[in-house]
Amino acid sequence: MQRQWLVTLQNLPAAGRSWDIDVPRRVLQDEQFGSVNVVSDLCGDVHWNVSLEHTGQLYRLCGEWRAVIARECSRCNAAFSWQVTGQTERQFQLGREPVDDESGVDCEYIAPPGEVNLVDVLREDIWLAWKADVICSETCKGLCQGCGSNLNSEACKCKRDESDHPFAALRNLKLDG
């Protein structure tokens, strides 16, 4: 079943190849397939629209993907579904990397016949798009720093005693006006 995700560059048709596919979550989470770490918190399949073209000695893989990943909000710690999109941009070349490559072309060199694991490419792209801090919404109020209440769903339970606040004495100041 996993063989469908392996592409041999030397066997690529002259017109190239395109995919507009939902990559099953179970494939991306299969530890037995590929060498890039699995993305374990996927909420569903990942949609991937990608094409592979052959120009000269370069093989260019480009497209875009979108996924939904279970995360925790950095402000309120609530679980939410993070919707993320990303780009796939890779160039491959068959053979060994030249010793003094001054061409300026950024590509991965692969020994012939040039087998590329598309699942590994997609996993890599998802990890590269990963953000350490994500929030559930732009309007997230976060947690109360005093009592720890989630301010999005409940009122603060703190009893604030601001008598020792450095500016508390200003409250009693009478201004003539």
TrEMBL record:
PANTHER family according to UniProt: LARGE RIBOSOMAL RNA SUBUNIT ACCUMULATION PROTEIN YCED HOMOLOG 1, CHLOROPLASTIC (PTHR34374:SF1)
Family annotation (Pfam families): YceD
The species this protein was found in: Mariprofundus ferrinatatus
Organism phylogeny: Bacteria, Pseudomonadati, Pseudomonadota, Candidatius Mariprofundia, Mariprofundales
Lineage: superkingdom: Bacteria
The protein, known as: Uncharacterized metal-binding protein YceD, DUF177 family
InterPro entries, sorted: YceD (IPR003772)
